[in-house]
Amino acid sequence: MSDNVIRPFQDKDGKRIGYHIWCEGCEEYHGIWVYNSNSYNGAKWTFNEDMIKPTFSPSLLVRSGHYQEDHKGGCWCDYNKKNPDKKAPFKCGVCHSFIRNGQIQYLNDCTHKLAGQTIDLKPDPND
Length: 127
Known about the structure:
By secondary structure, the chain is mostly beta strands. The model has no long low-confidence stretch (mean pLDDT 89). It has one helix at residues 76-82, and strands spanning 6-10, 16-23, 28-33, 46-47, 56-64, 93-100, 103-106, 118-120. The chain has one domain. It starts with 5 loop residues before the first strand and ends in a 7-residue tail after the last strand.
């Protein structure tokens, strides 16, 4: 198992474009585009090139479901209400954080249990 707390990802041609972090609050990966701009909204971050104690800037804001700015009706909350025995693999939420020196500072606008807390980034639990 590696000590790295981030994992690189590539474009379709195999060129590194950014990194994934495991988010303990959302219990899923978040992508951070460093070498190319994000195709969704053009976002791009700076990175200190440290795989063990990374710092990315600016903050990372991830919105899903009805929290997305371009949301147009229907969401995972609605799906789950209609299908209580077959929960969606996704959920609606906000995760807003600063990633500095190997720690993730979850801001108070997060909708998950770690809002307002700062914790160490952990290596990928799936490694």
